[in-house]
Amino acid sequence: MMNFKSNILLRVRVAYLVVLLFSIAIVYKIVEIQNLDGGKWKKKAESIGLQYRNVKATRGNIYSDNGSLLATSLPFYKVAIDPSLSNERVFNNGINELAERLARQFKDYSAKDYKRRIIDARESGRRYLTLNRKEINYQTKKQMSQWPIFEEGRMKGGVIFEKVDKRFRPFSYLGYRTIGTINEDNRGVVGLEYSFNKDLMGRNGKALYQKISGGSWKPVYDGTEVKPKNGLDIVTTINVDLQDVAESALLKALTHNDADYGCVVVMEVATGEIKAISNLSKRNQGGYYENYNYAVGSQGSREPGSTFKLASMIALFEEVNTSLYDSVDTGDGTMQFYDQVMKDHKPGGYGMLSVQEVFEKSSNIGTAKLIEGEFGDKPQTFIDYMTKMGLTKPLGFQ
To answer: Measuring CA to CA, which residue among 200, 218, 198, 202 is closest to residue 210?
Structure first.
């Protein structure tokens, strides 16, 4: 009895050991194929026309402050078919009507031509046939999904709708340079599309594709697909109505003055939110278009002009007990300032002005005389005031 029991235990242990070794061998082989020989098998797969390719994620939307769409991605589709998948009954019963509907939809081939192409592809064993290179919208796709043969779906009817996202701007060129553009790879080139590209573009998926004649790639649905993660939406502070008014006013002013370029920024002072921003440049052939964001870009940088007078006046009042009613002589509107000739806007000058009038009339000479008189022998003190106001630091625009 003892020998019999020992014999059974020995057999169980041997069987367990064999199973364990077999399991270890399987795990080792999996690791070897995936890691050690992965490159070899990947090249072999590519050599026979199989390749894992990116499945593009849908790019996020850009909205105005009230939820109006400024930029969005609309889905379009190319229509193809694997004519070998449908059974004889479905194919024979539906091919005539399918060909007629294709001819009416695309209007480039007759129903007879479509029928011949599909039957020829089926008889020759082709697994992928592009029915038409014209793109259809989502509503048309839904309608076509109910057509004969197509209504059986991808696995039984063989229909393949290849999605192609296209960027669409509902307000056309309104805020064009600020909203920005994308390239063929769905990446932002300029504007908000560029600044928030990482958030907008999402994460691409992966799927197995097979290369077919003509250099096209056909998706192979083998269950290993990794779905893409669509991009995030962003909400801007841009107000569509104010943007429209700002652009119209800028265009009118530039046209009236025959200016080379100009920009306008509308800010809500209570919040600091930018409600409109427009930039227009003159075309060589006439007219204006939005080519560069002068409002925040470095190209075409200019001196701050009258906006800097406020900072100068703040420094003046902080440094010395000056009255708004003190006076300064601005002369005939011209003054030699180091190696430059400074001028006021009014021909002939403003003459004698109070400090308040210097600011009200935006007198270059009056401001320069006041600042030179107080800070001429201590320029660093003036610079220190500018530093305290943050005007010597980069603004940090994207």
So the answer is: 218
